[in-house]
Amino acid sequence: MLKKRRTFIIGLGAALLCSLFLILNVANVQAKQVLQLGAQAPLDTIDISTSTGYGQTGNIFESLYRLGQKGKIEAGLAKSSQVSDDGLTWTFKIRKAQFSNGDPIRAQDFVYSWQRTIKPTTKSPYTNLLSNIKNAPAIADGKLDPKQLGVKALDKHTLQVTLTKPVAYMKTLMAYPLFAPQDQKVIEKYGKKYATKSKYMVYSGPFKLKGWSGTSEEWQFKKNPRYWDYKKVKLSAVKFTVLENTSTALYLYQDGRLDLTQLDNQQVENYSSNRDFKRYPYAQTYFLKYNFNSDNQQVKHILNNQDARLALSLAINRKTMNNRLYGFKTNPVTGFVASGLANSPVKKVDFAKSQAVPHTVDYEPKLAKEYWQKALKATGMKKVTLSLTVDSDDPNTSYVSQYLKGQLEEILPGFQLNLRTVPSQVAGSRDHEGDYDILLSAWGADFKDPISFLEIMLPGAANNTGGFKNADYQKNVDLATNQDANDPSQRWADMVEAAQVLNRTQSLTPLYQNETGYLQNPKVKGIIHNTAGTQWSYKTAYIKGQ
C-alpha cells in the first residue's frame, strides 16, 4: 500500500494463534468506569514529532482544538482565536492549563514543538502539514534555521502564526495532535530516553499514558487530573491489550472482558444483525495508481490512454467487491475523496456526492468494452499485459487482486493482468522508485478537508509517484488553496471540479473505502469516532450504570 498509516484502530489483525497468557491478562471483571479495548499492535512511538499516525493520541496529547462528533471543532488549549482579513495571520489565546507533571502550558511550548517537528534532523513524516507556515519548506530542506518558522509567542498566553497563504481549514488542522505543545524542559531532562517509555513523557490531553515501555503488550490511558477540562472526563482509565487473533477477541467480548472489538469478514456475516453491531467508516480510499512514466513504452502508451483507464474502471463491480470485503452494504465509492469526510459550507452536502461523475466509477461492462476497443485501436495494440503490485501484509489485498484479475480479464478482450504480491516494505520501495505498472494503493485523510486528498496528486507531491499531470486539475487546486481560500463556497466549487477531473480522466481508479464492523457494549456511551485525524476520542465516553 502507498500509505499504511498507523491509525491505531481499535481492533484486531489477521487470524493468528493467540496464547492463553493474553486471555488471562485481560481483566476478569469490568472495573468501574474502565473501558477495556483490544489493540492491533503495540504502540510504535509516543513522540508526536516523529509519529506516523495519530488515531488515538489525541486522548493523551491536545492541540489548540479538538474534534467532536461528526468532526465539529471544539475547544482545546486555545480559548479564542483571531485571523487577519487576508487570512495570513492567526492569533491564538492559550488558556490556563498544565502538562501532566504540573508545568504550565505556555505559547512558547507550541513554538518549541513546531520548530522541533520541522527541524530536518527530527525526520518527521508530517512536515508537509506545516508547509503553509512562513519559511517551513525552506527549514524542512535545511536551508533556514528552525527559529525562523513563522510562529512566535507574543506573551505567555498568546501564540501568533504567520502563513504564506490562507488556510481555510486552519482550525481543523490545529486539532491534529501533531500541533500539540511539547515541554522543552522535559525533553532536555530525559534526552535520549524521552518518549521511549510512558514515564519519560508529559501529557496535555484528557488522559496520560501508563505502563508502556516501548514494546508493551498492555498499557493504559489513565485520567489526567491536571487536564484543563478534567471534570468532563468520566472514565478513570482505558485499558489496552494487544490481541492479534479475532476469534480470541470475540470470545473476550462475549465473556464481558472487552467493550469493543473489530470483526473480520466472516464474523461480520455472522453478527451484522446483532444488536451490538456497529459500523465505523474511515476516510481512507483504496485505489489503482497508474505509472504514466513507465520505462516500458508499451505500458506507458496504454496507461496514458484515457479510454483504457476508463475501460478498467467501468469493468469493476465495486458493489460485489465491497460486499465480499466487509459483509455489509457500504457507502458507494464516487471518487478519490472518501465519503463522510466533509460537507459543503452552505447546504451541508457530502463532498463525495458532489464529486460524482456518471459513467466513470460505475459498473458498466458494455461501455467498458467500447472504451477498451477505442484504446486498442488508438494504440495499435491487440493484446495488453500489465502487472498489478499489491501489498501482501494487508489481509484484503489477496481477494481484491484476484477479483480484479478475474473481472478485468473477463470483460476486456486481449487483457492480461499479472499479480506481483510483495511485503509492504517492498511495495513502498517500488512505489517510491516508480517500479510498477499499476499499484494497489491507499490514502487516508490527515484532517477533515478534501484538500487532504487532492494535494497528493499535484506534480512534485511525494505520493504522486506515477507522474500524473493535468492543467485543469492543477488550476482548480491552486484556486482552492490561493485565490479562493477565503471564499468558502468558491473554494468548495474549485475542489469539486478538481475531484471531477480525476473522475473524468480516471487518472487514478477508486476501488473501495475502509469501513469496519464492530461489536460494542451497549452500555458504553459517548465514544467519539471521526473518519480522519484522531479517529477515537474517549474524553466524553462512559459506561452506563457504573
From TrEMBL:
Looking at the keywords, is ATP-binding present? no
Q: Name one GO molecular function term.
A: peptide transmembrane transporter activity
Q: What is its main location?
A: other
GO term, biological process aspect, one: peptide transport
Solute-binding protein family domain location is 72-463
What family does the entry list?
Belongs to the bacterial solute-binding protein 5 family.
Protein known as: Oligopeptide ABC transporter, substrate-binding lipoprotein
Species of provenance: Latilactobacillus sakei subsp. sakei (strain 23K)
Classification from the root reads: Bacteria, Bacillati, Bacillota, Bacilli, Lactobacillales
